[in-house]
Amino acid sequence: MAYSDKVIDHYTNPRNIGTLDKSSESVGTGLVGAPECGDVMRLQIQVSDEGVIEDAKFKTFGCGSAIASSSLATEWLKGKSVDEALEIDNMEIVEELALPPVKIHCSVLAEDAIKAAINDYRVKKGLEPLEAEKSIH
Amino acid sequence: MQLPIYLDNNSTTKCDPRVFEAMTPYFLKDYGNAASRSHAYGWKTEEGVDYAREQIAKIIGANSKEIIFTSGATESNNLALKGVYEMYAAKGNHFITVSTEHKAILDACKHLEKLGAEVTYLPVAENGLITIEQIQEAIKPNTVLVSVMYANNELGVIQPIREIGALCKEKGILFHTDATQAVGKIPVSVIDDNIDLLSFTAHKMYGPKGVGALYVRRKNPRVKVTAQIDGGGHERGMRSGTLNVPGIVGFGKACEIAMAEMDTDAARLSKMRDKLENALLQLEEAYVNGTKEHRLPHTTNISFKYVEGEGLMMGIKDVAVSSGSACTSASLEPSYVLKNLGLDDELAHSSIRFGLGRFTTDEEIDFTIKCVTDAVNKLRDMSPLWEMFKEGIDLKSIEWTEH
Ligand SMILES: Cc1ncc(COP(=O)(O)O)c(C=O)c1O
After folding, report:
1. Domain presence at residue A45
2. How many domains in chain A?
3. What is the distance in A from the centroid of ligand 1 to the CA of B212?
4. Arithmetic mean of pLDDT over chain B
5. B193 C-alpha to center of ligand 1: Å?
6. pLDDT above 90: residue B154
7. Structural domain contains residue A94
8. Averaged over A26-45, what is the pLDDT?
9. What is the pLDDT at residue B197?
10. Going by fewer Cβ within 10 Å, which terminus of chain A is more open, N or C?
11. Tell me: the pLDDT tens digits for B244-256?
12. How far is it, in rounded angstroms, from Cα A38 to Cα B201?
């Protein structure tokens, strides 16, 4: 199976690999997936007092499409408000990266990682965690 | 050096130019039907087939009359299992095989189970091998066939074939082996190993694709299988269909070359394989899957913990290998062979099989070492699991979100 140019680009030059201080009040961390399933994503956001995502970092264990999905997610997150970030839909990732059907689960995982990071941040701020939408995996 | 480097020789091999050369006249000049008895075209091809049959029989220590040509090892395995099941139905319906066999064996067994067969699938130990005691314990009064692969395609581990053959002979049970990965690579003898039926294929030994054979013993005991393809009654009635003459001639040539060059090839390849393996084991948390003791000389299967196999293959796109990772198949299941070793799924996901071959060079091995090492390091730098491992976090203590 051939990868799209965009997947190859993100895989070869991943954006925003790294680690933020997960104990910081302004950092939300989402860890999703499972090693047995062959992909694990950790996505972190650093949020300003105004509720804007100033920085985003990821680390991913997974195939090229999983790495590209999380790399792209961090790129999209930066500069967005937390509410805007919640709007990111996995199908946008599928379209942007031209993921084939067998790789859609990688984009779902990226969306889950965004939601998990935001929830972690919300809980730290004393807000209710958002109901996780049941995604079809 | 041509890129990508081909290190997937357990999957298939390049046709040896000498084999290709031997085949060409049978496409363009000697194109008769080997079954045509009435003219020179037929005689000529029959001669070519007869000669190839001798070459092919010789490499496994058989008689040429005991070779049934097929389209490959998949068909040979199907013919052996289904053919024995039908032919010996009066004697019993119990088969014994192993959980790490090729799908052509496992799925043929599943098919037979639906028809009333009883099949015992023996589990392998962590080293990929079964023991003779396991077979002994599994044998029942209605056991008609034991089928154990000679060498495993994913791991290269070699089963205790000679002991199994001796046991089956003593018990009067037929013994079939899928020797697809072994023939041409290591010495195989149907006499010494007491093998009654043996499957093999040309394309794993530098011959053409789409041609294989089933060895069917003719003496002590005389074995017969019920044909699974009906037609003109070729191949002693066991496999009808016009013979694939160029393929068979190429198969014969491939056997002749393999026999002549087996020792030198094996010595050279095991040295290169060991170099590759030892260099890659310098990486932290890298493990060889399956025993290193009883193993094909050209194969190694290594798990690079905390790196996912398909992601790794993308990082080493200049090296053609295969992975036990789920992602390479449509399912999310990693290799059943690796899982059967008792490997955690995550280790199975992190595995790469390197299959060296006759045309592999030292330069290619050096390149591969560098390429794989760099990719593993790069992917670990972006692996959350690696970071956790380095921080001393037990991954088993984390509640993962299944998906
Ligand atoms: C152990 C084993 N058996 C059977 C086969 C099938 O062989 P063929 O491709 O000739 O049908 C293979 C190769 O894929 C194999 O490795």
Report:
1. yes
2. 1
3. 10
4. 95
5. 21
6. yes
7. yes
8. 93
9. 98
10. N
11. 999 999 999 999 9
12. 33
Question: Residue A63: which domain range?
Answer: 5-120
Q: Are B30 and B51 in contact (CB under 8 A)?
A: no
> Residue range B54-67: average pLDDT?
98
Per the listing, tokens 């050279």 go with B268
DSSP lists the bridge partners of residue B319 as: B5
Is the Cβ atom of B152 under 6 angstroms away from ligand 1?
Answer: no
Question: Which domains are seen in chain B, by residue range?
Answer: 5-9+262-384 (3.90.1150.10), 17-258 (3.40.640.10)
pTM of this structure:
0.91
Is B344 in a helix, a strand, or coil?
coil
Backbone dihedral angles phi then psi of residue B245, each to the nearest 5 degrees: -60, -50
Helix A5-12 to helix A90-97 angle (10° resolution) is 100
What is the CATH classification number for the domain harbouring A62?
3.90.1010.10
- The residues on B that touch A, with CB distances below 8 Å, are 306-311, 314-315, 325-327, 330, 332, 334, 344-346, 349, 381-387, 395, 398, 400-403
Average pLDDT over residues A36-51: 93
Question: Is the pLDDT assigned to residue B384 strictly greater than 80?
Answer: yes
Give the residue carrying structure tokens 């490997």. Answer: B343
Residue A13 lies in a domain: yes
User: What local confidence, expressed as pLDDT, does residue A136 receive?
Assistant: 43
Angle separating helix axes B103-114 and B73-87, nearest 10 degrees: 30
* CA pair distance A79, A85, nearest whole angstrom: 9
**What whole-number distance in Å separates Cα of residue B89 and Cα of residue B366?**
54
Among candidates A132, A6, A101, A116, which has minimal Cα distance to A58? A116
As for the ipTM of the complex, it is: 0.92
AA letter at A49: D
Question: In this complex, is the C-beta atom of A59 within 8 Å of any C-beta atom belonging to chain B?
Answer: yes
* Interface touch B385/A64, C-beta < 8 Å: no
Q: Dump pLDDT digits (tens) for A76-114.
A: 999 999 999 999 999 999 999 999 998 999 999 999 999
Q: Which residues of B are catalytic?
A: 327
Check CB contact under 8 Å for B386 and A61.
yes
| Contact between A34 and B314 using a beta-carbon 8 Å cutoff | no
